[in-house]
Automatic annotation (TrEMBL), chain A:
Spans traversing the lipid bilayer: none
UniProt superkingdom: Bacteria
Record's keyword annotation contains Signal: yes
Xref: Pfam families: SBP_bac_8 (PF13416)
UniProt entry keywords in alphabetical sequence: Periplasm, Signal
Organism: Ancylobacter tetraedralis
Full protein name: Putative spermidine/putrescine transport system substrate-binding protein
UniProtKB/TrEMBL annotation, chain B:
Species of provenance: Ancylobacter tetraedralis
Membrane association type: Multi-pass membrane protein
KW Ligase (keyword) present: no
Classification of source organism: Bacteria, Pseudomonadati, Pseudomonadota, Alphaproteobacteria, Hyphomicrobiales
Family classification: Belongs to the binding-protein-dependent transport system permease family. CysTW subfamily.
Transmembrane segments: 12-36, 71-90, 102-126, 146-169, 252-277
Alphabetical keyword list: Cell membrane, Membrane, Transmembrane, Transmembrane helix, Transport
ABC transmembrane type-1 domain boundaries: 65-273
Protein name: Putative spermidine/putrescine transport system permease protein
One annotated GO biological process: transmembrane transport
Gene Ontology CC: plasma membrane
C-alpha cells in the first residue's frame, strides 16, 4: 500500500503532458489496488447514492462554487451538492463559527492556515484519494519541478498536511493526512486597459506612475491586498522583505505608511472588495491598472473591452484553494465526500476550470477532457488554432490569440509569493484599516 | 378586582417580551462580548478592557468617528433643508387634500425599490465616463471629466441625502398639517411678515416633526456602512464600515466594543435632541 512515495510521483506529474498515457495505466492499477486495500468506499457506485440520496453542503468563495459542477455531480454520482458562495472573510468565519452548517469547505490555503486549528475540519486520508499521485507537486512537495524554489507566503505545501488524523499541527513534509485536496489555483497579476495606459507595463511599480493618478485600484481584502502592496513596494524599491508572506511589524509599518502616502497623493481611484466591483471599475474606465483576478479580466473582455492580464517581471502572486471535509462527517456521508473529491479530480471539473483560465490540481485527467487545441492554448501557451470557447460556449479568444503570460510552467513557475496569513496578522489588519480610513 | 389590576400588565406583556428578546438581550450580549478576548480565529470569555483600550486609543477610531459625525452633520443639514422645503410646499401651497396625498405618495415612489439599488444607480451616472460627465462635456461646459463626482465624500453625501430625505419629509409634513391655520391668520392680522410667520409660528410648531426626522436621519447615517463603502469606492471610512471590517476578520469583541461606543454616542445625540424638543408634548 505504499505507493504514495511523493518524490517520484511528484517529478512524474510535472512531466504531465507527454508521458500521460502510459503513466495513466500504471496509476489506474495503483488506484484499483488502493481501493481494494483501503476502505472500499472509493470505487464509485452512483447507484448507491441514487437509492439512498445524499446531500453534501458545500460553501466557499465564488470562484469554484459553480452550478455546472453541482449539476454534473448530480448526474455522474447522484450526490446533490448544495453550493453557497461567500467572500473569503465570510468563509473563514463560517468554518470556525458554524462547524455544523457545512459538509465540504472550499477554502483557500491561507484560510486553511488560519482556521484549521479551530478543529472543525478533518484531515483526509490520501490513501482514499485516487489521483493523489497525480496532484501537481506544488501542493505536495511545494516544488513545481525538482529545481523550483518554494515561493514566499503561505505556500500550499506548508499547510497541506498534518501529522496525524487527529492532529492540528501542519507537517513539514507530505504525510498521509491532507488538510485540503487542491482544486483550483492560479497566478495573479495586475490587469490593465491596454487602450488607456498608453505605454508598456512591465513591473508592479508601474501602478504608481503619476500618469495613472486617480486611475488605479488595489483590492481591499487585507490578506490579499497586503501581498499586492508588497509586490508593488518591493518593485518600487521602497523595501526589501525577508518574507513577504510573513512580514515583521517594521515591514508592515513601512508598507502601510507608503500606501497611506500614495493614497493621500490621490493615486487610487477606489478599493474593491468583490469580483463585480473590479469588473465594473475596469469596464467603465474608472481605473486603467489595478489588482485583478483572471476571470474578471475575461469578464471585461467579454464585454468587448480590451483588458490584459499583464505578466510582470517580479513574478506572480499565486493563490490556491481546496476542498476540506467537515469534522462532523462520518459513515455514508464521509464516503460520499471522498467519492465527490475523487470525482472532482477525475477530469471533467479540471477541464471546466482550465477553460476558465484557472488551473486544476490533476492535469493528466483534465487533459483527457479537453481538446488538443484547448490544451495547447490554456496550458502550453500556444497560439489558439481555433476559436477558444468558455465553458458556456461563448467565444473568449479568437484563433491566433495567445494566453497572457504563456504556458502553465511559465506562469506557475514564476510565482513570487502566495496569498498568506501572517504571524502579525492582527497588527497587519489594524494597520490596513488605518490605510483604508486614512 | 385582581383581573382589572392585572389587565394593564397583561396588555404590556407582548411588547415587553418582544423588546426583551430582540432588543435588550442582543444589546446585553454585545456588551458582554465586548469584554471578551479573541485571537485570529476564535473568541473566548474573559473580562478584559483591551478592546475598549485599542478602540479608544487608536487615532484611526477618532478619525473614523469624526468622519462619521461629519457625514451626519452635513446630511442632517441638507435633509432638513430639503425635507422642510418639500413638506412646507405640500402643507401650505397645495390646497386640495387629494393633491396633497397624491404628491406625498409621489415622494415615496422611489422607496418602492431597494435601498441599495437606488444607491448603486448613482454609480453609472456619476462615473468618469458616466452620463453626467458625458453630457457636461458634450455641452462644452467642461473639457475634463469631473473626478470628484464619484468615489468621494461628495458622492457619499449625495447618496445619503437621496436615501434619507423622505425620513425628514414625513414627520415634518405631519406636524405642519396639524398646525391650526387660524394661528397663521392671526399672525398675519397682527402684522407679521411671511418670514416672521415662518420663524415665529411655523418652525416652533414644527419642532417635534423636525426632531423626529432628525432622530431618523442621525441614527441612520451614524450606523451606515454600505453607502459609505460603495459611494466612496472603499476610500472613506465610517464607524459602521469599521465594525463590518472587524466582523469580517472575526474580531467580534472589537466590533462589539465599537458597537457599544457607537450606541452610547447615538443615545447621547438622541438625548440631546430630546432635551431641546419635547416630542411627547406634541404626539
Amino acid at each position: 500500500m505504499n505507493k504514495k512515495t511523493t518524490d517520484t510521483s511528484a517529478a512524474g506529474a510535472a512531466t504531465d503532458a507527454k508521458s500521460g498515457l502510459s503513466r495513466r495505466h500504471v496509476l489506474k492499477g495503483a488506484a484499483a489496488l488502493g481501493g481494494l486495500a483501503g476502505s472500499g468506499a472509493v470505487t464509485g457506485f452512483p447507484t448507491i447514492w441514487a437509492q439512498n440520496p445524499i446531500t453534501l453542503r458545500q460553501f466557499g468563495t465564488g470562484v469554484s462554487n459553480l452550478n455546472a459542477i453541482a449539476e454534473k455531480c448530480k448526474a455522474d454520482l447522484g450526490i446533490t451538492l448544495q453550493m453557497t458562495a461567500l467572500d473569503s472573510d465570510a468563509v473563514s468565519q463560517r468554518v470556525v463559527t458554524q462547524a455544523n452548517s457545512f459538509d465540504i469547505a472550499d477554502i483557500e490555503y491561507w484560510i486553511c492556515k488560519k482556521v484549521f486549528a479551530a478543529g472543525t475540519l478533518q484531515p483526509m486520508d490520501v490513501k482514499k484519494i485516487k489521483y493523489y499521485d497525480d496532484i501537481v507537486p506544488i501542493f505536495t512537495t511545494g516544488k513545481l519541478t525538482p529545481e523550483s524554489k518554494i515561493a514566499q507566503g503561505t505556500a500550499p505545501s506548508t499547510v497541506g498536511f498534518v501529522e496525524g488524523p487527529e492532529s492540528k499541527t501542519f507537517a513539514k513534509a507530505p504525510t498521509q493526512w491532507m488538510t485540503l485536496i487542491p482544486t483550483i489555483y492560479n497566478a495573479d497579476t495586475l490587469g490593465i486597459r491596454p487602450d488607456l495606459v498608453g505605454r508598456p507595463i512591465k513591473n508592479w511599480k508601474d501602478i504608481l506612475d503619476p500618469a495613472f493618478k486617480g486611475k488605479t485600484s488595489i483590492l481591499n481584502i487585507p490578506s490579499i491586498g497586503i501581498m499586492d502592496a508588497a509586490m508593488i513596494c518591493e518593485s518600487a524599491g521602497v523595501i526589501k522583505y525577508g518574507d513577504k508572506g510573513n512580514m515583521t511589524k517594521a515591514e508592515i509599518d513601512t508598507t502601510i505608511d507608503f500606501l497611506i502616502k500614495t493614497k493621500k497623493a490621490g493615486q487610487f481611484r477606489a478599493f474593491w472588495k468583490t469580483f463585480d466591483e473590479s469588473v465594473n471599475l475596469m469596464a467603465s474606465g474608472e481605473v486603467v491598472i489595478q489588482s485583478m483576478w483572471s476571470p474578471a479580466v475575461a469578464a471585461v473582455r467579454s464585454k468587448g473591452i480590451p483588458c490584459v492580464y499583464q505578466p510582470l517581471e517580479e513574478g506572480y502572486r499565486a493563490w490556491g484553494g481546496g476542498l476540506g471535509i467537515a469534522k462532523h462527517l462520518k459513515g455514508a456521508q464521509l464516503d460520499a465526500a471522498y467519492e465527490y473529491i475523487n470525482w472532482y479530480l477525475s477530469g471533467w471539473v479540471g477541464a471546466y476550470l482550465n477553460r476558465q483560465g484557472y488551473y486544476s490540481a490533476v492535469l493528466s485527467t483534465a487533459e483527457k477532457n479537453m481538446t488538443p487545441e484547448e490544451w495547447g492554448f490554456w496550458m502550453l501557451g500556444q497560439p489558439a488554432k481555433t476559436d477558444i470557447l468558455s465553458p458556456e460556449g461563448k467565444v473568449m479568444y479568437t484563433a491566433g490569440a495567445v494566453r497572457d503570460g504563456g504556458s502553465f510552467k511559465e506562469r506557475m513557475g514564476a510565482v513570487a509569493c502566495w496569498n498568506s496569513v501572517m504571524d502579525e496578522d492582527r497588527y497587519m489588519v489594524r494597520r490596513w484599516n488605518e490605510f483604508i480610513a486614512a | 378586582m385582581t383581573l382589572t389590576r392585572l389587565a394593564p400588565y397583561l396588555q404590556a406583556t407582548p411588547l415587553t417580551l418582544i423588546l426583551a428578546a430582540f432588543l435588550v438581550l442582543p444589546i446585553a450580549t454585545i456588551t458582554m462580548v465586548s469584554f471578551w478576548d479573541y485571537d485570529s480565529i476564535q473568541i473566548f470569555p474573559a473580562f478584559v478592557f483591551t478592546n475598549y483600550e485599542e478602540t479608544i486609543t487608536s487615532p484611526v477610531t477618532w478619525n473614523t468617528y469624526i468622519n462619521t459625525l461629519k457625514f451626519t452633520v452635513i446630511v442632517w443639514a441638507v435633509t432638513l433643508l430639503v425635507g422642510f422645503w418639500v413638506a412646507y410646499y405640500l402643507a401650505f401651497h397645495i390646497r386640495s387634500a387629494t393633491t396633497q396625498m397624491v404628491l406625498f405618495l409621489v415622494c415615496t415612489i422611489p422607496f418602492l425599490t431597494s435601498n441599495i439599488i437606488r444607491m448603486i444607480s448613482w454609480i453609472p451616472f456619476l462615473g468618469r465616463n458616466g452620463l453626467l460627465n458625458q453630457t457636461l462635456m458634450q455641452l462644452g461646459i467642461i473639457n475634463q471629466p469631473l473626478e470628484f463626482l464619484l468615489f468621494s465624500d461628495f458622492a457619499v453625501v449625495l447618496a445619503m441625502v437621496h436615501l434619507y430625505t423622505l425620513f425628514m419629509v414625513t414627520p415634518i409634513f405631519n406636524t405642519l398639517m396639524r398646525i391650526d391655520r387660524a394661528l397663521i391668520e392671526a399672525a398675519r392680522d397682527a402684522g407679521a411678515s411671511g418670514w416672521q410667520i415662518l420663524t415665529n409660528v411655523i418652525i416652533p410648531l414644527a419642532k417635534p416633526g423636525i426632531a423626529i426626522g432628525s432622530i431618523f436621519v442621525v441614527t441612520l447615517v451614524m450606523g451606515d456602512f454600505i453607502t459609505v463603502r460603495f459611494m466612496s469606492g472603499g476610500q472613506s471610512a465610517s464607524v459602521g464600515l469599521m465594525m463590518a471590517n472587524q466582523i469580517a476578520l472575526l474580531q467580534y469583541p472589537a466590533a462589539a466594543a465599537n458597537a457599544v461606543i457607537l450606541l452610547i454616542l447615538v443615545l447621547l445625540l438622541v438625548g440631546g435632541i430630546l432635551r431641546i424638543v419635547n416630542i411627547r408634548k406634541e404626539l
